[in-house]
Amino acid sequence: MSDDYALSMLFIAALTVCLGSFVQTVIGFGMAVIAAPILFFLNPEYVPGPIIFAALFNCLANVYRFRSSLSISGLKSAIVGRIPGCIVGGGLLLVANQHYLAILIAVSILFSVVMNIFKFSLPLNARNLFWAGFASGVMGISTSIGGPPIALLVQGQKASFIRANLAGFFLFSCITSLMILVPMGIFTYEHLLLSLPLLPATLLGNYIAYKIIDYVNKSLIRYGTLCLCITAVILMLIKVMV
Question: Which residues does UniProt call coiled coil (predicted)?
Answer without folding.
Answer: none
